[in-house]
Specification:
Elements lengths: L16 E7 L2 E7 L3 E6 L5 E4 L3 E7 L4 E9 L6 E9 L5 H16 L7 E6 L8 H15 L3 E6 L5 H7 L8 E6 L1 H12 L4 H4 L4 E5 L5 H7 L7 H10 L1 E12 L2 E5 L2 E5 H7 L10 H13 L5 E9 L2 H14 L7 H4 L19 E2 L4 E7 L3 E3 L2 E2 L11 E7 L5 H7 L14 E13 L6 E3 L2 E3 L4 E14 L11 H4 L2
Parallel strand pairs: 8-9, 8-10, 10-11
Antiparallel strand pairs: 1-2, 2-3, 3-4, 5-6, 6-7, 12-13, 12-24, 14-17, 14-22, 15-16, 15-21, 17-20, 18-19, 20-21, 21-24, 22-23
């Protein structure tokens, strides 16, 4: 994760600094470069720690102790782990040690605020029910070591996070951490939407600590390798920069709901909501639900209509690639910072008909949303961008598409390869509508169950804020067709 944090690293024009210390009787050399701390203990192979991974450094002259803390993988494919390194420095090197510690901290944080104030919401019952133990053992030590102040609240029932976010004191916290799955984030953002000052509330950056079953948002922020790594998520909470993102306004029966990730109907809603009793399986329940849904293989009896902006897959892919190369750290626009009014008003009337297209083929499933991953084994929206002001819509037709085709295509689902399937309709739209043509069915919004009734969706551009160490969704996506030619 940290190696790919382009705008978190300092300039390479700075001079290297090095010093020696004693750790358990072994001579240890600390060499500080503009991008990394290189540690050599005795005759061991030097260890390179990216400065983004350094979370604390200090020198204590009375004890002549140089203290450094960082997170690093002890195994190539393993999770990040917290490391404390305390070295005894000779008295003559005290001044150099003090300079090293101060410079290391300055370079490691650069323009990132030290000692963030964090509101932490923990759902003890999320996922497989290990959120409290994981927080106490792995997350809190990292945050405390970095000097963060924590206001921890344990939710007791559904709706607690909504109420906390709805009344969150603005300006008191640098970020809100959700130690759970995507459901708690859904509550938080809807709480912000109903805050007395919703636009300002939405500027409180949200950072997920993945302890749920799906953890789609964490996968999108941290990437497939670190998406379930709670220490990587903790590092993002400490050092991530604010990233404005689009969210969606969903109007159903006159009530507005905010969605940050996905809306699903048909097979995809069935495998999500139809496997609620299998949460103990973790995210494996989604694949199980897929196979179970294929047995029925029934069409989703709804009418889909949308205001399309782009449906050329090649153009969307090229735009995705070019946007990644142009991404840089951005601040929240001043006009949004100063706003304290209500949520943006709807730009799309419910009875508007001009410019709308009706999807004419029978649907196996509909998926719409923001952010490439919806689960570890499914990159549903591979060309999704954080703030393009559009909804990515996936409509899988049953025309000339069988159970065998589904099984064959889902082998590449984790890498987004379904995108290139000719039978998969993928488009970007300003808004869309769903009108159920039957009485029974599932509607999943951010993994939460909603009434299977008519609704309309449109974008709320750059309204919400996430913490990110990249400045974009960390979900690489390639042209599979070109690579196979």
């Amino acid at each position: 994760m940290a190696e790919l944090a382009p705008y978190a690293l300092p300039s390479t024009s700075m001079s290297d600094i090095d010093i020696e210390a004693q750790i358990h009787g072994k001579v240890t050399r600390y060499c500080l470069t503009s991008t990394a701390l290189i540690i050599t203990i005795g005759n061991k192979k030097p260890q390179t720690v990216p400065l983004h991974n350094v979370i604390a450094a200090s020198y204590h002259p009375d004890a002549r102790l140089l203290k450094v803390a960082y997170v690093l993988r002890k195994k190539k494919k393993g999770p990040l782990e917290l490391v404390h390194l305390d070295g005894q420095v000779e008295g003559s090197r005290a001044e150099a040690a003090g300079k090293l510690a101060k410079t290391m901290l300055d370079w490691a944080y650069k323009d990132i605020k030290l000692h963030r104030r964090l509101k932490v919401l923990i759902n003890p019952h999320g996922g497989v029910g290990k959120a409290v133990a994981v927080f106490n053992k792995l997350v809190e030590p990292v945050l405390r070591t970095a000097g963060c102040s924590l206001d921890v609240v344990y939710t007791k029932k559904t709706g607690d996070a909504y109420e906390i976010a709805k009344s969150l004191p603005l300006g008191e916290f640098d970020a809100l951490l959700s130690v759970s799955g995507d459901g708690l984030i859904h509550e938080v953002l809807n709480g912000f939407a109903n805050h007395a000052y919703p636009r300002k509330a939405f500027q409180t950056p949200v950072a997920p600590i993945p302890t749920g079953s799906g953890n789609g948002l964490s996968l999108n922020i941290l990437g497939i390798e670190d998406g379930f790594d709670v220490v990587a998520a903790s590092l993002n909470a400490i050092k991530g920069s604010p990233m404005p993102v689009d969210v969606f306004s969903i109007v159903q029966n006159g009530k507005q709901t905010v969605s940050f990730m996905s809306q699903a109907l048909g097979l995809m809603a069935d495998l999500d909501l139809g496997t609620e009793d299998l949460r103990w399986m973790g995210d494996s329940r989604f694949m199980y639900g897929l196979f179970r849904g294929l047995i029925k293989f029934k069409s989703c009896n709804v009418q889909l209509s949308y205001k399309v902006v782009e449906q050329d897959k090649r153009k969307m892919f090229d735009n995705f690639k070019s946007s990644r190369s142009q991404t840089s750290s951005e601040s929240i626009p001043q006009e949004i910072q100063d706003a304290d009014s209500s949520l943006p008003k709807s730009k799309v009337s419910l009875d508007e008909t001009e410019g709308w297209t009706i999807f004419s083929e029978p649907l196996l499933y509909l998926y719409a949303g923001k952010g490439p991953y919806v689960a570890r084994d499914f990159m549903a929206f591979p060309v999704s961008l954080p703030d393009d002001g559009l909804i990515d819509i996936v409509a899988q037709s049953t025309t000339n598409f069988s159970r065998t085709d589904v099984l064959a295509s889902f082998g590449g689902a984790p890498k987004g390869e379904l995108y290139w399937n000719d039978s998969l309709h993928y488009l970007k739209a300003e808004a869309y509508r769903i009108k159920p043509l039957s009485k029974k069915g599932y509607l999943s919004i951010d993994g939460e169950s909603y009434p299977f009734e008519e609704f309309q969706v449109e974008v709320l551009p750059r309204l919400a804020t996430l913490l990110s160490s990249y400045g974009y969704y960390n979900a690489p996506f390639d042209d599979v067709k070109a690579s196979k030619q």
